[in-house]
Design a protein that fits this description.
5 strands, 183 residues, 3-stranded mixed beta sheet, 4 helices, single chain, two-stranded antiparallel sheet
């Protein structure tokens, strides 16, 4: 302990001598003299505090103080991203089932669906909805002849309008195609 105090006193005396020499060398008319004195004051404070604080800083483990909170935050962010992706996937599945049921009630079959969905701030936004549909097959008596009827552009517009109203989606984000539509 005495060696520590002697070493500290020696460093303090050397720092004070250096500061006094620098102040003597500086000319009186120098505009930067006050800034230099501030720097020398910081140097003196550093010299006084360094042996005391330096020992404690050496005992601190960098990974425990700095790295672990960052890793935990990164893990939380990753979990949130995975959670958001899961919500988007579940929404897409349920939405496809719902659209399929809706179209079926209106006499159409869903062949294919493409959904561009984003989940932000606990809200789901449908950016684009692309459907490929056809009229439901109608079986004739015992012969089971499947009759395919064409879907007109007016019917497509009507379906898009109904979907827009029913699901509160902007109609410009809905694209409906049909193999047998009148183009």
């Amino acid at each position: 302990m005495i060696e520590f105090l002697v070493s500290w006193a020696e460093q303090l005396i050397i720092a004070l001598i250096i500061i006094i020499i620098i102040e003597i060398i500086l000319p009186n008319g120098n505009n930067y003299k006050k800034y230099i004195k501030v720097v020398l004051g910081i140097f003196l404070v550093y010299t006084i505090i360094n042996p005391i604080v330096g020992e404690k800083i050496n005992n601190i483990k960098f990974k425990e103080v700095v790295a672990n909170p960052y890793i935990e935050d990164n893990t939380n962010i990753q979990n949130n991203i995975n959670y958001d992706e899961q919500i988007e996937k579940k929404f897409k599945i349920k939405f496809e089932e719902n659209i399929n049921e809706f179209l079926s009630k209106n006499g159409y079959e869903l062949e294919k669906i493409e959904q561009d969905v984003t989940y932000k701030n606990q809200e789901i936004e449908i950016n684009k909805l692309k459907l490929k549909i056809e009229k439901q097959n109608q079986e004739k008596e015992k012969i089971k002849v499947k009759k395919q009827e064409k879907i007109t552009d007016e019917e497509i517009k009507e379906i898009a309008s109904k979907i827009s109203d029913n699901y509160e989606i902007d109609e410009s984000k809905i694209i409906i195609e049909s193999e047998n539509s009148n183009d």
